[in-house]
Amino acid sequence: MARIGTKKHPAVVRVATEERARQILDLCNQHGIQVIVGIESDQPQDISEVERILRPPEPFKVVAKAPRRVTGNDYCPCGSGQKYKKGCAARVPATSWNLGLPGLGARLAHHAAKWPISRAPL
């Protein structure tokens, strides 16, 4: 389908006076919009198609996806090339001292937290 305001699909405008019709035609000529103007004094003014063409486009909304959870058979996110269950999950036990460390320790602890080590009561 052709865009509104082109030769194949001109914008249709309804105004009440000839003066307003000239204003709309001048505006459309400045912006290169093809328009059909109807003068009908007994009908309400309708210039919505021209307004829609002149309105700047709305920006796209980018929705962030949640990071994919690492499972045992996925490759390790550290880049070692090993499976996660043989790499970082086996090397870093989830203990209270490494769960809050910034940097690499926190990243590894995040993955190790999925498989917490069960502790026997003291």
Could you provide a short overview of the structure?
The chain is of the alpha+beta class. It contains 4 helices and 2 strands; from the N terminus they run E-H-E-H-H-H. Strand 1, helix 1 and strand 2 form a beta-alpha-beta unit.
Write the layout of secondary structure elements.
Elements: E1 11-15, H1 18-31, E2 35-39, H2 48-54, H3 88-91, H4 104-112
Structure description:
Helix 1 links the parallel strand 1 and strand 2. The protein is rod-shaped and about 80 Å long. The protein has 2 domains: 44 residues, no CATH class; 46 residues, no CATH class. The chain is an alpha+beta fold.
Query: What class, by secondary structure content?
Result: alpha+beta
Largest sheet: 2 strands, parallel
What is the rounded distance between the termini?
Answer: 74 Å
How many β-strand stretches?
2
Radius of gyration: 32 Å
How many structural domains does the protein architecture include?
Answer: 2
Beta content comes to 5-15%
Unreliable parts: 96-101
Topology pattern, helix = H, strand = E: EHEHHH
Name the overall outline: rod-shaped
Count of helical stretches:
4
Averaging pLDDT over every residue, what do you get? 79
Widest beta sheet: strand line-up: 1-2
Helix content: 25-40%
Key phrases:
122 residues; alpha+beta; rod-shaped; 8% strand; 2 domains; two-stranded parallel ribbon
